[in-house]
UniProtKB/TrEMBL annotation, chain A:
Keyword presence, Amino-acid biosynthesis: no
Compartments, as annotated in UniProt: Endomembrane system
Coiled coil: none
Entries under InterPro entries matching the protein: AP_complex_ssu, AP_mu_sigma_su, Longin-like_dom_sf
Main location per the UniProt record: membrane
Transmembrane segments: none
Official protein name in the record: AP complex subunit sigma
Keywords noted in UniProt: Membrane, Protein transport, Transport
Entries under Pfam families matching the protein: Clat_adaptor_s (PF01217)
Family: Belongs to the adaptor complexes small subunit family.
Source superkingdom: Eukaryota
Automatic annotation (TrEMBL), chain B:
Keyword match ATP-binding: no
PANTHER family, alphabetized: AP-3 COMPLEX SUBUNIT DELTA-1, DELTA ADAPTIN-RELATED
Location in or out of the cell: Endomembrane system; Golgi apparatus
Record field: compositional bias (Basic residues): 852-864, 880-890
Domain Clathrin/coatomer adaptor adaptin-like N-terminal: 34-605
Species for this entry: Penstemon davidsonii
Keyword Protein transport attached: yes
Official protein name in the record: AP-3 complex subunit delta
Length: 124, 909
C-alpha cells in the first residue's frame, strides 16, 4: 500500500523501469528497511516492483498486492513485459489508480479494475 | 487565425509519446540529455497550441519525462489546468494525471484554479469523470481545496454507485487531514459504511479507519462493536488485516476489548491459509495482546512454523515477530533458540542480521560465554561485512551498562584479544577503547590483560594490519602501564621496539615509545634495588612509609615481577637496545614521536653512568637514582575512569558567573584541550611523588603542604585567571570520588590528590561493578524536551481530526468551539488548549462507567441535560453564520450534546 508521502509523489514509486539505480536488491528476502520506510519488492523477470510502506504495513499483503497488479497488467496487455509498461505508462497509472486510492486498497477484482480502461480504449 | 499556421504544423508533425519513447531508447546514454532537452523545447512550443489534441499529447510527453527522467514540469502547471476543462475524457485524464503527478499541494498556486473544474466533475453524471476527479483530489488536495469541495464529497459518500462511493471514502481521508472540520460533516456517513456489504467500499472504509487509528486510537474506541462485527463476519483477507491493525491499536486502551477479540483472532490464525493474514494475527497478538497467555502460545507456535518454512520472507518475519516478543517474554526466544542460531548461517543477510539481534537479546550473565563462542565461530566463517556486524554486536552487548553481563573478565579480555586477530576485524577502535577501559576499571583482570597485551604486541604479523592499530595502541599502553605485572619486561621491550613498528602511524608509535619509556624506568628501578632496598636511599620518614605501602602492595599483586635476573650486563644491553632503536627517531619529523624518543634517550643518558659506575655512589649518581624513583612513582600513579557528570557535582560557588564570557573562555581553553583525547599517559607525567603516593592523606592537609614549582605556577595562574577556576573553598564540599574531569597538566598537583582518591574508590569493586553513576540528568532532560517538542508539532493536526471525530461520535460539543476557533487562528494557537477540550480524559472515565444495555447512539440522546442544551444553542447561534452549508447534515444539538454519554457499548461487558 502506497504510503501517504508516497502518494503525493507517486512518480517515485514508478521507477521500476530504470533498474540500474536500484541497488542492494540481490538479497533474497523481499524486505529492506530504509530510513522510516520498509521497501517491499518483488521481482518479475527483469522488473522489480517496489512498494515503499510505513512500518505498520503487512509485508506479505503488499507482496500479494504486487502480484495482483502484475496479474492485472498481464490480463490487460497479454503477457506483460517491460515495454508494455514503458509505452503505456499512463495505463499502468490508471490501473493503479483503480486499485489504490490515497493509500487505501479499494479494488481487488481484476475485471473491475480493467473495465474503465477498456471503455477508454473503445472510445478512442 | 494567427496561431493557425504553427498549430496546424505542430499537430501534423508532432511527435507522439511513442515516438518520444522510441527516440529515448535509441539515443545513447551520452546523447540522452541532449535528446531530452530537444524534446522539451518541442513540448514547450506544442503545449501552447490551441488545439486540445496537440496540447494533450505535449502534456503526455512531458508527464512521461517528468516521472521517469525527473524533468521539471512546473512551467506546465497552468496548461494542465487548462486542458482539464476539455470535454474529451481522454484529454481530461491526461490533464489530471499530470496534475496528480507534478503538483505540489503546498506550493503550486494554480491548484485553486482547478477548484471549479473539480467541483463540476464531482457532480458529473459520468462516473468516470467523478472517479478521475476523486483520485486527483486525493493526490493534490490542500486545505483550500478540501474546504471548498467538502459538500460535494459529502454527497458522493452516499452515492448509489459503489464504484464512486469507495473512491469518495478513500479520498475523504486526505480531505480530513487537510481540513479537519470536514470530519464534522462527513464522519457519520463514513461510519455508516462500516456496515455495508460491498467489499470495495468496506475495504476503503476500513483502510481509512486504519490510517486514522494509527495516530490517535482513543477517539475510535466507540466504533469497536462495528469493527468487531467485521472481524467475526468478514472473510476478505485484505479487510481482515486492516481490522486486525485497528484492534492492535485499540486493544491496549481497553482491556476488556482485548479479552473479547482474542478469541476470534486466534480462530482466524488457526483457520486461514493465507500467510499474510496469519502473520497479521501473530503480530497483533504479540504487540497488543501478549498478556493473553494461551493466545501468545499459539502465536509463538505459528512463528515457529514461519521459522521452519523455506520461504525467506516468512523466516524473516518470524524472526521479527520473535524480536517483538522477546522484550517481555524471553521464553519464546529460548524455546526457538536452535532455529535462531541456525538462521545465523542463512544465505540472506537480512535474516542473519535479524537472527543476530535476537541472539544478542538472549545474552545474560550465565550464557554470555557460550553465545560469544558460538558467534565467534560464525564470525570466522562469515563474509567480512557480516563478520564485523557480529563483532559489533558482541562488543556492544558485552560493554552495555559498564560490562554488566561479564563476570569472568579474564575470559573477556582474552576474548577481545582473539577478536582482534580475526582477519576481517575492523572494530579496532572499539576493542581499543574497551581494553583500556577494562584495564582502568577492573583491577583483578590486569594480570591477564597484560598477558593478552603482550601476545598482541609481540606478534609482528599484526603490525601490518591497519585496522587493528588501535588495538595495538591499547595493548602497548597496557603493557607499559602495568609493566610490573609482566613476566618478562625485556621481551616486552624488544616487542615494543621491533623494526616493524615503523608501519604504525605516528600517534600509535608515540604510545609504543612512551610504553617503552615506562618499561625502561621499571627495569632500571628494579635493578637499582629501589623497590626492596629502601633503606639505602636518603628519604624522609613519611615518604619512606608511603613507599613501603606502595611497594609491598605491588609485590603482593605479582610476586614474580621483581625477581627478574637483573644484572649489570643485561640492563646495559637493554639500554643499548633502546638507544639503537630510538636514536634515529630523535630526528623524526613527527613531533610526538620525536619528543618521546628524546625523553627516553635523555633518561638513558642520565642513567648510564650510574649503572656503569656500579654501586659506588657518588653525589651525582645518587641524584640519578633519586630521579628514576621520581619518574617511576609518577608512572605507578593509577589512572581511573572519570564520571561524565563529575563536573556537574561541583556546586557552583557564590559569585561565579557561568553564563557570561563564554567566548573568551573558549579562546583560553583551546590551548589546554589536546592531550587527553589523543594519548593516554600525558596527564600524569609531571606528577610528583609526594602527592602521588599518599593515598590516605586527607585533602586539607595536602593543600597546606609545601608547594613546589608547579603548584606555585598554578596558583599564579589561578590568581591571574581566577574567573576560570573553581573557588578553592568549594573543593571540600564536592564529593571526593568525583574530581573535575580532564585536569590539564599544570593543575596536576591539586587534582592528583583527587585522582588518587577516585582511583582508590572506583577500583574497590570485585568482579562486577558499576563505578559510574547513571547518565547525566541534563542530557536526558534535553532529549525529552526535544522529542516532546517534535511530537507536539505533529500532534496538532491529528488532534484536530480526532477532536472532530470525538465530537461526532460522542457529541462533546465543547470541543467544537475550541477546535473551531483554533482552526481560524491555526498556527498561532498552542496545543494544550485544544487537548484539554477534546475530552481525552472524559472518554476513559466514561467508558468504564457506561454499562447500559442500549445502543450507544441512542443513549446519548437521553442523557442530555437541559442546561447543556441551552449553552449549546448559544454557541450554535454564534457559529451559525459560518456553517450553514453543513447544518443540514449535522446531527443537531440533541445528539451532539451529552458530553458524558457512555462510550463502550454493552457487548464488552
Amino acid at each position: 500500500m502506497v504510503n501517504k508521502q508516497g502518494q503525493t509523489r507517486l512518480a517515485q514509486y514508478y521507477e521500476y523501469l530504470n533498474l540500474e539505480e536500484r541497488r542492494a536488491l540481490e538479497e533474497q528476502c523481499s524486505f529492506v528497511e530504509h530510513r522510516n520506510y520498509k521497501v517491499v519488492y518483488r521481482r518479475y523477470a527483469s522488473l522489480f516492483f517496489l512498494v515503499g510502506v510505513d512500518n505498520e504495513e503487512n509485508e506479505l499483503a503488499i507482496l500479494e498486492f504486487i502480484h495482483l497488479l502484475v496479474e492485472t497488467m498481464d490480463r490487460h496487455f497479454g503477457n506483460v513485459c517491460e515495454l508494455d509498461i514503458m509505452f503505456h505508462l499512463e495505463k499502468a497509472h490508471f490501473m493503479l489508480e483503480e486499485m489504490v486510492m490515497n493509500g487505501c486498497l479499494v479494488e481487488t477484482s481484476k475485471s473491475s479494475i480493467l473495465s474503465p480502461i477498456q471503455l477508454m480504449e473503445k472510445a478512442s | 487565425m494567427a496561431g493557425g499556421g504553427p498549430s496546424l504544423m505542430d499537430s501534423l508533425f508532432q511527435r507522439s509519446l511513442d515516438d518520444l519513447i522510441k527516440g529515448l531508447r535509441l539515443s545513447s546514454p551520452d546523447n540522452k540529455l541532449n535528446f531530452i532537452s530537444k524534446s522539451l523545447d518541442e513540448i514547450r512550443r506544442e503545449i501552447k497550441s490551441t488545439d486540445p489534441q496537440t496540447k494533450s499529447t505535449a502534456l503526455q510527453k512531458l508527464t512521461y519525462l517528468h516521472s521517469l527522467h525527473a524533468v521539471d514540469m512546473s512551467f506546465a502547471a497552468f496548461h494542465s489546468v487548462e486542458l482539464s476543462s476539455s470535454a474529451v475524457h481522454s484529454h481530461k485524464r491526461v490533464a489530471f494525471l499530470s496534475a496528480a503527478l507534478s503538483f505540489n499541494p503546498s506550493t503550486t498556486d494554480v491548484i485553486l484554479l482547478l477548484t471549479h473544474q473539480l467541483r463540476k466533475d464531482l457532480s458529473s453524471p459520468n462516473h468516470h469523470d467523478v472517479s478521475l476527479a476523486l483520485s486527483t483530489i486525493s493526490s493534490i488536495c490542500n486545505p483550500d481545496l478540501a474546504r471548498d469541495l467538502t459538500p460535494e464529497l459529502f454527497t458522493l459518500l452516499s452515492s448509489s454507485k459503489m464504484f464512486v462511493k469507495k473512491k469518495a471514502i478513500a479520498a475523504v481521508l486526505r480531505v480530513f487531514e487537510q481540513y479537519p472540520d470536514a470530519v464534522r460533516v462527513c464522519f457519520k456517513r463514513v461510519v455508516e459504511n462500516l456496515e455495508g456489504a460491498d467489499m470495495g467500499v468496506l475495504s476503503a472504509v476500513v483502510g481509512l479507519f486504519c490510517e486514522l487509528t494509527v495516530n490517535e486510537p482513543r477517539s475510535y474506541l466507540p466504533l469497536a462493536p462495528e469493527f468487531y462485527k467485521i472481524l467475526v463476519d468478514c472473510r476478505n483477507n485484505w479487510v481482515l488485516i486492516k481490522v486486525l491493525k485497528i484492534f492492535a491499536k485499540l486493544a491496549p486502551l481497553e482491556p476488556r476489548l482485548g479479552k473479547r477479540v482474542v478469541e476470534p483472532i486466534c480462530e482466524h490464525m488457526g483457520r486461514t491459509g493465507a500467510k499474510s493474514l496469519a502473520f497479521e494475527c501473530v503480530r497483533t497478538i504479540v504487540t497488543s495482546l501478549s498478556e493473553h497467555e494461551s493466545a501468545l502460545k499459539l502465536a509463538v507456535e505459528k512463528m515457529r512454523e514461519f521459522l521452519l518454512d523455506d520461504d525467506p520472507n516468512l523466516k524473516y518475519l518470524g524472526l521479527q515477530a520473535l524480536a517483538i516478543v522477546s522484550e517481555n517474554h524471553m521464553w519464546a526466544v529460548l524455546e526457538n533458540k536452535e532455529l535462531v542460531v541456525k538462521a545465523l548461517s542463512d544465505v540472506d543477510v537480512n535474516i542473519k542480521l535479524e537472527a543476530l539481534r535476537l541472539v544478542m537479546s538472549m545474552v545474560s550473565e550465565d550464557n554470555v560465554m557460550e553465545i560469544c563462542r558460538i558467534l565467534m565461530s560464525h564470525a570466522l566463517k562469515s563474509d567480512p561485512e557480516f563478520c564485523n556486524e557480529i563483532l559489533e554486536f558482541i562488543l556492544l552487548t558485552c560493554s552495555r551498562n559498564v560490562y554488566e553481563v561479564i563476570i569472568d573478565f579474564d575470559w573477556y579480555v582474552s576474548f577481545l584479544g582473539e577478536m582482534a586477530r580475526i582477519p576481517h576485524c575492523q572494530k579496532g577502535r572499539e576493542i581499543e577503547a574497551q581494553l583500556v577501559d577494562i584495564g582502568m576499571r577492573v583491577k583483578d583482570v590486569r594480570l591477564e590483560l597484560v598477558h593478552v597485551a603482550r601476545d598482541l604486541v609481540i606478534d609482528p604479523a599484526l603490525l601490518g594490519n591497519p585496522f587493528i592499530h588501535g588495538v595495538l595502541a591499547a595493548a602497548s599502553w597496557v603493557s607499559g602501564e602495568y609493566v610490573e605485572l609482566s613476566r618478562n619486561p625485556f621481551e616486552l621491550m624488544e616487542a615494543l621496539l621491533q623494526p616493524r613498528t615503523s608501519l604504525l602511524p605516528p600517534s600509535v608509535r608515540a604510545i609504543y615509545i612512551q610504553s617503552s619509556f615506562k618499561v625502561l624506568t621499571f627495569c632500571i628501578y628494579s635493578y637499582l634495588g629501589l623497590d626492596g632496598d629502601v633503606a639505602s636511599e636518603p628519604l624522609s620518614d613519611t615518604e619512606l612509609d608511603n613507599d613501603n605501602v606502595v611497594i609491598t602492595h605491588r609485590q603482593t599483586s605479582s610476586p614474580s615481577s621483581s625477581k627478574h635476573n637483573l644484572t649489570q650486563e643485561s640492563i646495559m644491553s637493554l639500554l643499548n637496545l633502546v638507544e639503537t632503536n630510538l636514536g634515529p627517531l630523535a630526528g623524526s619529523d613527527e613531533v610526538e614521536v620525536q619528543e618521546r624518543a628524546s625523553n627516553v634517550l635523555g633518561l638513558i643518558k642520565l642513567m648510564k653512568p650510574r649503572i656503569i659506575g656500579g654501586l659506588n655512589q657518588s653525589e651525582e649518581e645518587l641524584k640519578a637514582s633519586e630521579s628514576i624513583k621520581l619518574i617511576y612513582d609518577a608512572f605507578s600513579e593509577e589512572l581511573a575512569p572519570v564520571s561524565l557528570n563529575s563536573q556537574e557535582r561541583v556546586p557552583i560557588p557564590d559569585g561565579l558567573v557561568l553564563k557570561e564570557n563564554l567566548n573568551e573562555l573558549e579562546a583560553i581553553c583551546g590551548d589546554f584541550k589536546l592531550p587527553l583525547s589523543t594519548s593516554f599517559s600525558l596527564v600524569k607525567t609531571r606528577m610528583f611523588e609526594k602527592d602521588a603516593t599518599s593515598i590516605s592523606e586527607c585533602q586539607s592537609k595536602e593543600e597546606s603542604e609545601p608547594s613546589n614549582e608547579s603548584t606555585s605556577l598554578l596558583s599564579e595562574h589561578r590568581k591571574r585567571h581566577g574567573l576560570y577556576y573553581l573557588a578553592s573553598e568549594s573543593k571540600e564540599s564536592l564529593s571526593n570520588d568525583y574530581p573535575p574531569a580532564h585536569d590539564s597538566k599544570d593543575k596536576a598537583i591539586d587534582e592528583a590528590e583527587d585522582l588518587v582518591k577516585l582511583t582508590e574508590q572506583s577500583l574497590v569493586f570485585k568482579k562486577k561493578s558499576n563505578p559510574l553513576k547513571p547518565r547525566p540528568v541534563v542530557l536526558r532532560l534535553d532529549d525529552g524536551e526535544n522529542s516532546n517538542f517534535v511530537s507536539k508539532k505533529l500532534e496538532v493536526k491529528e488532534d484536530l481530526i480526532s477532536g472532530a471525530v470525538q465530537e461526532v461520535l460522542l457529541g462533546t460539543e465543547a470541543s467544537t468551539s475550541s477546535s473551531r476557533s483554533k482552526l481560524l487562528k491555526k498556527s498561532s494557537t498552542g496545543v494544550p488548549e485544544l487537548k484539554d477540550d477534546t475530552g481525552n480524559n472524559d472518554i476513559s472515565e466514561v467508558s468504564l462507567v457506561g454499562s447500559g444495555r442500549k445502543k450507544h447512539s441512542k443513549e446519548r440522546k437521553h442523557r442530555s441535560s437541559g442546561k447543556e442544551k441551552e449553552e449549546h444553542n448559544n454557541k450554535d447561534k454564534q457559529k451559525s453564520d459560518r456553517r450553514h452549508s453543513k447544518h443540514k447534515s449535522r446531527q443537531r444539538a440533541d445528539s451532539a450534546l451529552a458530553a458524558q454519554s457512555p462510550v463502550i457499548p454493552d457487548f464488552l461487558l
